[in-house]
Write a structure and sequence with these properties.
The chain is α/β, with parallel strands linked by helices. 50% of the residues lie in helices and 9% in strands. The chain contains 21 helices and eight strands.
């Protein structure tokens, strides 16, 4: 049996361990080597990379993608997309979703892993359809979690819907690293039985220490593609090590088309960068530790580190344990949504607010109110009736597809930006992150003027 690898170093490993702060210039010299490793794909875009490029790295995320593609022509480039949320935290109109997907593929993306935080297929159809229209691989992904309302049958039903929508692969996205080997065994077998002609992909994290065992059982059960990270950026809240699983699976007789020598070169390149981030404090030892609390609280590593940082900023870190206990209570009240972006941030922030104010739901965030109104999709389970009444009164929650209520946004954004937008990619950046993009455009324009002035003076 053949097992293929998706390398996450340029996206999720980077995002999970160092808050997506690795700038393009840091990894440019190793890209051509990575292109020779034999990966099924390299995850390098989507998730938080887009926001981080504009907000912290002073980079155009579209230009970053084009540069990676130029250096890696032989390896499929992959991104993570939140369905109708794209890379943001709310739903966008269909015209925006379609153009974003189209431009992502035009700029270099070959595989789009598409998921919805609520596993609501209505929020996935447009992005999947546009991916297929533009010739990329649509990987429909299940946001995996456990709760009284999340069953094997529902996951299988979602996989069948993905197949009906035309997805070429099915992903299992275990964002908190809570899937046990037994659960992986049962789910992979069930999915292989339901959609036998579609390759299965497993994405998990080492947060709870379960990942290596889970991946091994998933592979033995028929999983075709696994997500791993170059070893020096693996473990903890990141993925399991590429080299370790390559050696283990090869030793068990699986066919793994990776080049061992290239894998070593890649790891040797990134080791000094890891040490640099340790020294600066950007990479914290805590991010590389095993935290079995996630098995109880279902908290992804990124959500946990953000909570710690926020509580430290508010000088309230002594309330951390209370907040962790409150998270599953809030999640239950909201009908057990999977804790994945944007729901993880929403639930975590509400739990912290409940604890710090000393009264549950004294202050309810606008995002939670929108969720209860039905603006994010259908909740997996029943929302607490008292909480729903507090937010809606006698109003009934919206039960349709929320994106159908949104007006097209592209022409309006183009008019607002005027000459500041040099292309449709700029317009999309602005729609997703308006204030951040505007600041980036201002810096870019100022830099261009300085460059032009220097060139004129040199002449």
């Amino acid at each position: 049996m053949k097992v293929q690898f998706t390398e996450t170093m340029l996206r999720d490993a980077n995002q999970s361990l160092v808050a997506t702060r690795i700038s393009y210039d840091k990894f440019d010299p190793i890209l051509e080597t990575m292109d020779k490793a034999g990966y099924y794909s390299m995850e390098c875009w989507g998730g938080a990379t887009f926001d981080a490029c504009l907000r912290y790295l002073d980079e155009d995320p579209w230009e970053r993608l084009r540069k990676i593609k130029a250096k890696c022509p032989n390896t499929k480039l992959q991104m993570l997309l939140r369905g109708q949320n794209l890379l943001g935290y709310k739903h966008y109109p269909d015209d925006v979703v379609r153009l974003f997907v189209k431009k992502s593929i035009e700029n270099g993306i070959d595989v789009i892993r598409i998921f919805d935080a609520l596993n609501d297929p209505r929020n996935l159809r447009v992005s999947i359809d546009e991916t297929l229209k533009n010739g990329a691989i649509a990987s429909g992904s299940i946001a995996y979690t456990t709760s009284p309302v999340h069953t094997l049958e529902k996951y299988v039903e979602l996989a069948k819907e993905f197949k009906a929508m035309g997805c070429q692969t099915i992903g299992i996205k275990d964002m908190a690293g809570v899937m046990t080997p037994a659960e992986a065994h049962d789910l992979v077998y069930a999915l292989k039985d339901a959609v036998p002609d579609l390759p299965l992909v497993l994405h998990t994290h080492c947060t709870t220490g379960m990942a290596y065992l889970t991946i091994l059982d998933a592979v033995e059960s028929g999983c075709d593609i696994i997500d791993t990270a170059t070893s020096c950026f693996s473990g903890g809240t990141s993925q399991p090590a590429t080299e370790t699983l390559y050696e283990a699976l090869t030793g068990l007789g699986y066919e793994c088309d990776l080049n061992r020598d290239v894998l070593k070169q890649v790891n040797d390149f990134f080791k000094p960068l890891r040490d640099e981030y340790f020294k600066s404090g950007l990479l914290k030892a805590q991010a590389l530790a095993t935290d079995t609390d996630a098995l109880s609280y279902k908290v992804p590593g990124g959500m946990l580190t953000n909570m710690i940082a926020n509580l430290e900023d508010m000088h309230a870190i002594d309330h951390m344990d209370e907040a962790l206990v409150e998270i599953p209570r809030v999640r239950k009240d909201l009908g057990y949504p999977p804790l994945v972006t944007p729901l993880s941030q929403m639930v975590g922030n509400q739990a912290v607010t409940n604890v710090l104010l000393g009264q549950r739901y004294k202050n309810i965030s606008k995002e939670i109110k929108a969720y209860i109104r039905g603006e994010y999709g259908k909740a997996p389970g029943e929302i607490n009736p008292d909480l729903q009444k507090k937010v809606l009164g006698d109003e009934k929650p919206f039960t349709g597809r929320f994106a159908d209520t949104l007006e097209p946004a592209l022409d309006k954004a183009r008019a607002e930006l005027g000459d500041r937008a040099t292309c449709d990619e700029d317009v999309l950046s602005y729609i997703c992150f308006p204030q951040t993009a505007e600041k980036f455009f201002e810096k870019r324009e100022a830099k261009m003027k300085r460059t032009y002035k220097y060139e004129i003076e040199a002449v």
